Amino acid sequence: MARKVGRRGGNIVTIHDVARHVGVSPMTVSRVINGEKNVREETRAKVMASVEALNYSPNLAARSLATQDSARIGLLYSNPSVAFLSEFLLGILSESSQSGAQLLIESCEGPEGATAALEKMKAAGCDGVILSPPLSDSTRVAKILQDMKMPFVGVAMARPDPNVSCVTIDDFKAAGAMTRRLIELGHRDIGFIKGHPNAYASQIRYDGFAAAMEKAGLKIDPGHVAQGYFTYRSGFDAAERMLSQKVRPTAIFASNDDMAAGAVASAHRLGLEVPEKLTVVGFDDTAMASSVWPELTTVRQPISDMAGLSVRLLLDQIKGHRSGRPFEAVREVRDFSLIERQSSADIGSASS
Amino acid sequence: MARKVGRRGGNIVTIHDVARHVGVSPMTVSRVINGEKNVREETRAKVMASVEALNYSPNLAARSLATQDSARIGLLYSNPSVAFLSEFLLGILSESSQSGAQLLIESCEGPEGATAALEKMKAAGCDGVILSPPLSDSTRVAKILQDMKMPFVGVAMARPDPNVSCVTIDDFKAAGAMTRRLIELGHRDIGFIKGHPNAYASQIRYDGFAAAMEKAGLKIDPGHVAQGYFTYRSGFDAAERMLSQKVRPTAIFASNDDMAAGAVASAHRLGLEVPEKLTVVGFDDTAMASSVWPELTTVRQPISDMAGLSVRLLLDQIKGHRSGRPFEAVREVRDFSLIERQSSADIGSASS
DNA sequence: CTGAAAGCGCTTACAG
DNA sequence: CTGAAAGCGCTTACAG
């Protein structure tokens, strides 16, 4: 019944089993599964078939031990929305377990606390670090890391820096696209709730909104722009102020989902149905967006993919760093997308 | 400057470096870091000091390769709340990356779809599987796994089964404790929103609530008990029905946080301040609880710890299974705790 | 209480 | 295009 048994039981298919099955060396099998060039097509096919038949899949531990590209990476974050962070973490964890990287997670209170956290990581033997927003936009944190000669990559950076590697979306374009969509739905007076002032993305998102409004020849009512802090509560309060004015916007664009959810709650409290009486849209497409009701129309930012990619980028950079390859910053810009759910409605183009 | 360089660069402290530093064999160092008994206290101390000094920490890949206890485990889930799932995943991912386990994640539509997903896992070489609720309570799914002779452990099982390993909290007690707390705050007419009918925990939580009410000599108004489905929307609707009646409860206990958040929104819509006019409490303490405003008083279930523990239990079980050790189910019951935030208020004990 | 040998499953670097 | 050898960092099993 049992196939093969390891030193202490268990039956696992190894690269040797496949090699024997095909009648080649383990080396050749290794080449095939790693997609290397120098293998005869016929041999490749036979190996593939065998891999399939024996249901072989490589032992990640052995691989990362052999390749030596197992690294220890640190993740530094500071007070983001829980929903954002957990999606972020999911991406990081799943990629780092795939790549056999060891993870060290630290939080800090803004850029000021970063030094201590970073020292700690260095001491713990981290080979590089991932920065979550808004830390990724801090020139101060970047400087510290550069002085330490520590490879790092920023996620969701809004301020492009030719010297740092990052993976982002184009916040300006994304905010613009959502704004245009709202205009298309007939909205003319659109309120905007800004994100935390220390997050650079907040500024860019507002700029994208403002630019799209201007391009459409629409005015932004200063009373319909409010400062938020990325929290539900701040979105709630901001919307309450905005909606208690004599003239109300017909739509509110919040810079993240938590604030949008807060805005919806506030509208409900004031007896305004969403989306019948007010359209509310968010940004990020975190769990919050699809957990509340009505579910939120929002800009999808593929947070967990971006986080995963940042791990791969960092690992690459660490490899380069170790082998003395000169550093070259990469900027990966992912696509955003507009997700239309139930919190937005067409109010008919009342126009020229 | 550089300490030691591996085959392709990088400077990592290995067990050999520590051994050399102390003047013992790598074996001895290994014993110390694994906390084995047979080491002279003096030797142990020296090794520890050296580990500290050189900032050594073991290479997980090498360890799991050597111990052979690297396994492939599957995680099967079906339609839970996103907030719950993401905390669950966090625990699973972080523990499995620690233990060097490979993870395969599949979802299915209820117990019916489980067979296919499980076959797939088996084919992919999974050595065992983790079941999230409500799948963990399905006798049908348990049966399939047992027939496959596949080790598995259930998380958050409400229905104790002497033949299956699991990690849970005592839902009955937890619901009872929250209920007593509400009574202590002066509430007499407490509404209850049940969870999804196919989740066994829903029933148990209600039972715990009912038992505590009865023990306190309080009646449950049948109009103040509503069926929910663990979603925000269902909590919103249930609360709306409950709060539109002539007699309203002064508190609502929802079986999870998403529904509690929905209930708060519904109360707001009806012009009822929370917690001034209505206390609302939830269950689980997921991200939702602390994301909304007012933040939710809730029963904390350490989901991510529980999920992590389930991985360790499963790995243990797989090891036993491999070595032919007879199966013995373990039931780990973790502590819950009451988290009091801003959605609950003391309305004064109106009574003897 | 301590150590020398062998092996975990894979890959790199070197030959052919 | 393919393979034999050696090594990644750790632990098990066996001696002493």
Automatic annotation (TrEMBL), chains A, B:
The keyword Transcription regulation applies. It comes from the Bacteria. Keywords: DNA-binding, Transcription, Transcription regulation. CDD domains: HTH_LacI, PBP1_SalR. GO terms for molecular function: DNA-binding transcription factor activity; transcription cis-regulatory region binding. This is Transcriptional regulator, LacI family. PANTHER family: LACI-RELATED TRANSCRIPTIONAL REPRESSOR, LACTOSE OPERON REPRESSOR. The keyword Transcription regulation applies. Residues 13-67 form the HTH lacI-type domain. Pfam families: LacI, Peripla_BP_3.
